[in-house]
Amino acid sequence: MSRYPEPVAHSGMIRSVLPRFNPLIPMPLVAAALLLPACSSDSGGDEDADDGVQPVTAVNNNVNLTSGGSNGNSSGNGSGGGPYMLPPDYTATEFGGYKLGEPSDGSGSGAGGTSNSGGCGTAIVGVVRDFKRGDRDGGHPDFETFTGDGEEGIVEERLGDDRKPVYVDADHVYTTTRENFNQWYNNVDDKNVAYAVSLSFEPNGDVLTFHSSRFFPIDDVGFGNEDFEHNFHFTTEVHTAFVYQGGETFTFTGDDDLWVFINGQLAIDLGGLHSQLSRTIDIDEQARHLDIEIGGMYDLDLFHAERHTGESNFRVETNLAFTNCGEIIDPVVK
What we know:
The protein is mostly beta strands. The chain has one domain (27-328). It is 6% helix and 26% strand. It has helices at 27-34, 178-182, 283-290; strands at 54-55, 91-92, 97-100, 123-131, 192-200, 202-204, 207-212, 234-243, 249-254, 258-262, 265-269, 277-282, 297-306, 314-318, 321-322, 327-328. Strands 2, 3, 4, 5, 8, 10, 11, 13 and 15 form a nine-stranded antiparallel sheet that branches. The chain has a five-stranded antiparallel sheet with strand order 6-7-14-9-12. A hairpin with a 2-residue loop joins β6 (202-204) and β7 (207-212). The longest helix is centred in the N-terminal third of the chain and has 8 residues, at 27-34. Mean pLDDT is 76; it is low at 1-80 and 104-118.
């Protein structure tokens, strides 16, 4: 939805391996290199199901990265120093692209399983959950119900021990109850359907960018499009980590709700339904607030919701040096 008419840490968590960093390599190249595969994406892997958090780590900081432009039309193999190339099974977007379903290139886990191939390309794996629109039988009352211009303070400043946002019990404009909100980022039978999704980031100047002005990763799956051209009712959840080296920024632009936590502390609050908004966090300026120090490795947790018809915009730009390719906390359908 973009334009409207006026009106306790997880017990199964496995931490990623911290690579050795070369301070002489420029930050954008370090960030990009950490997302490049440590081995060929054609390698086989064990994708057997297993409960718990499943991080996927790729380390390779010997890279000569070249931007290939927009719409996924880059050339090269994207491995071991070649320029970025969107994998052929991804949906191309303005920058980068996405793929729904269990990663097939060693980039993550499906229903809790982990691949051992060691490579993730430039993709970070997350989870999308589909919901029924609120005006349908059994639909979720927070979806296709509200319109508005955003609301801060829907979630607590600290992430929950389960690495999920904690709802603030108060009179909110664009949500209903704590119980209903908790369904956004947790698997609940008959309320949502969860899928793995891979987001491929593309070099764009001195940052890595994922940008889609038509972000509809679950069209025609789950509960379906419900008489719309696209499936507008879903949430996106991403868990990764980065090493803080100084000088980093993280920018999100899009709609609707968006919360980013760094080291468990709320860093971006774009909650509520709203047209496309943008927010940038300067990590250096917020370091004390986030309780982080240069040289440390910290979690980054992103929670997004697309809740109303119209448009779906999703753009991330960052020069953070990610140290894993995504952690899937809950099982996914495929």
